[in-house]
Amino acid sequence: MRAASPPWSTVLFDLDGTLADTIPLIIASYQHAFREVLQEEVDDVRARSWIGRPLLDALLQESPTHGHELDRVYREWNLANTERLILAFDGVRELLHALAAADVRSAVVTSKRRGAAALALQHVGLDGLIEIAAGLEDTTEHKPQPGPLLHGAALLGVEPADCVYVGDATVDVLAARAAGMAAVAVTWGAGEREDLLATEPDHLCETVAELQALLLGDHGEPAGA
Q1: Which of 13, 102, 157, 213 is 20 to 30 A off residue 91, Cα-Cα?
Q2: For 143, which DSSP code?
Q3: For residues 20 and 86, is the Cβ–Cβ distance under 8 A?
């Protein structure tokens, strides 16, 4: 039997909710900022709906008058509580090791600022396993536009068609489509399964083990299954 061959030479990953379980941290940061600045309570569902978008854009849409103050308070609290609240997803470190062993390149393209992304990767023990991490300040365009993903591919010197983008939010799938990359949606982050399927990703993975099998060329669930 012929050994499986990875279908893509380069994997670009979203960070929040995909490689690292930052969802509790993000939700708590939103809730703290709205409570401090607007004396307003934000439920988990509402906070989850903002994940994947640039932070300031989401906050200015919610409160044009106080968006910048919300952004400042969010970032201060988020930074102070990252180590306490960030969690590692089981199997992700092993996934990245397996990709490296198969000569598949791994990088991060995130809506976080580079410094926050580096801190998150460090706290979950992934910082030495990612080739580059492209962040919010690297492009003027943001997901679901293709600019960040195209920038990540350019930094690595690879063609978009040779890349797959893996993310947990609808904006991730839409950005991959717009960039001419294959799109893989994962269900262990912020996005709801049905919402992800509605964006028509190439594959949908329910577990890290399933994602690893797909990226190494073994199998994967086609979108809509």
Answers
A1: 157
A2: T
A3: yes
Neighbours of 2 (CB within 10 A): 4
Q: What is the pTM of this model?
A: 0.90
Q: 119-156 burial by CB neighbour count: b if 16+ within 10 A, else e? A: bbbebbebeebbebbbbbebbeebbbbbbbbbbbbeeb
Indicate if the pLDDT at residue 221 is higher than 70: no
Structure tokens, 17: 């909710």
Q: In what helix (H) or strand (E) does residue 100 lie, and over which residues does it extend? A: helix 92-101
The verdict on whether 172 is a catalytic residue reads no
The residue type at 27: I
Tell me how far the alpha carbon of residue 66 is from its chain's centroid.
Answer: 26
- What is the DSSP annotation of 182-202? EEEEESSSSS-HHHHHHT--S
Alpha carbons 125 and 21: distance in angstroms, whole number: 12
- Stretch 89-110: mean pLDDT, rounded? 97
